[in-house]
Fold:
Amino acid sequence: MKKLMNKPEDFSRETIEGIILAHPECLKMVDNNFRCVVRADERKPGKVAIATGGGSGHLPTFLGYVGYGLADGVTVGNVFASPSAEAMYEVDKAIDNGAGVLHLYGRYGGDLMNFGMAADLASMDDIRVEEVLVTDDVASAPKGEEDKRRGVAGLFYAYKTAGAAAEKMYSLDEVKRIAQKTVDNTRTMGVALSSCTVPEAGKPTFTISDDEMEIGMGIHGEPGIERTKLKTNDEVVEIMLNKIIEDLPFEEGAEVSVLVNGLGATPLEELYIAYRKVYEILDGKGIKIYRNYIGEFATSMEMAGMSLTLLKLDDELKEMLDFKAYSPFFKQDQK
Amino acid sequence: MKKLMNKPEDFSRETIEGIILAHPECLKMVDNNFRCVVRADERKPGKVAIATGGGSGHLPTFLGYVGYGLADGVTVGNVFASPSAEAMYEVDKAIDNGAGVLHLYGRYGGDLMNFGMAADLASMDDIRVEEVLVTDDVASAPKGEEDKRRGVAGLFYAYKTAGAAAEKMYSLDEVKRIAQKTVDNTRTMGVALSSCTVPEAGKPTFTISDDEMEIGMGIHGEPGIERTKLKTNDEVVEIMLNKIIEDLPFEEGAEVSVLVNGLGATPLEELYIAYRKVYEILDGKGIKIYRNYIGEFATSMEMAGMSLTLLKLDDELKEMLDFKAYSPFFKQDQK
Structure:
């Protein structure tokens, strides 16, 4: 796969420069440092702040979810590489409104270590920091070890619900509780058809034959649970959705939100073909779709493939999901 | 490139079924025919209706621009194939509010013929039909023969401005005038890095070496103006933008809207790297960016590449561009 880029080492900086030039009314850097990006709109004193971050290459994750009803700041790493603890600490200081900061991010080794160090630094400044790890990827660890799983497209739901709670001026403990409840009720499975290319590597992260796909592959190319001959869209959806459904489990009578996410190179047409089958299967099991999201929400550069995510809803999570949200990358009116 | 699909011949139907299941509050079929999709919200008697259509495989073009402040109905062909005149005529009948219909679409042979026949059929029902062809692709015919050019991502601007005028209850003549003025002031250039695969063909539409790109290629793989070694993002932007600027021409003091469009497989990161250079070049020439759009607006399945579009604005076009628009695929608040 060929890339439209300049020097590989400038990839993340130039991306952020483009974003800030395009959306100055929404986003700004902290101290001219492209690694630290925060909301540019008016601050609300006493509002809990939400910080996120991680490697680049997943737009709209993570930076795309900095906005009203979502997160307040993001730390930007190089492609697929964790940003530094110092940069995370700078974001914490920049976004704290006196009510504390929730670190909300996907469970990856480098990010875990660096967000931990940033929390220590912030606490020395008397900024209270709590943490919720998103761990929605069913393929990354077996049932019973949910807390060892990676975070993938389900991150979106955690931003959406926790962001709404923060905007409603809930306390840090309450925002954390809602984020954790969201994670506990979110399950994702992905499938990859082709590799992506990290700019600094200059070649595909992994190889996969023209007639193969890998079910359960992670968004950085982490091994999945099965490499198999190419199946139909319907077959892929059935395999992935059944694994998701039995994992939580999602049962008859449940109300869910469905997220059909493109990993980068998969046409929107194919995501809707998948949604058609998701709808049919859930309908057959008596599981009701309350709200759907279909498009690119967490990508892996130009990887071909998709992921399916279900979030099991109760009245509180519905209220948070229905809350208005606004960023340059995601817009939703209040229901 | 591998596809997530079922039977190739079901690709367009299954796509539309998924879309209607996902967005029943916004879109519906006419007489259960997936080839004819119209707005599902309340009709405004006396409002000019806008019909569009063309082959599938370009989402969000065309169907994604059926909504408030945009078009009213779309006719859906197979991938890269024109829909029939009969289906277009069914859409005309379904959306006419008594004020006439504007056929607004990209200039391609099959669509020209079929929309023409549909207009004849509609006129026999006393539905007044006018037509505006979008012809923004600078690479597809030389200066002086602008009316022979193809329509590409600039379609978006024609929907946006004509759709706003229709929503403001302008007459058919006025909606047509605004659509034509938009087309007259819109210029696009694209670059392709890889081919797409049409489902029914099952193999890439064209071949291109791993170290090559084609500047000016059309969104169905039509030949461009130059096949060249892979250049940097900055170089590609400079070549394409200069051709656009000199074509209209866009001159110092002009106000423009910029659209940086991904063709399918190009990461959003790379589109923002391009926007950074667009901004620098326009700023250097004293051309002011009034509003930007960055993302996937007109795709070519999973083609890697992008297009740049400029629209030269006056006060009237700014007013139309700032008007609220809403579809499942495109949301913009009133400025």
Q: What stands out?
A: Chain A touches chain B through 57 residues (CB under 8 Å). The helical segments of chain A are 11-22, 85-95, 109-124, 155-167, 172-184, 233-247, 268-284, 315-322.
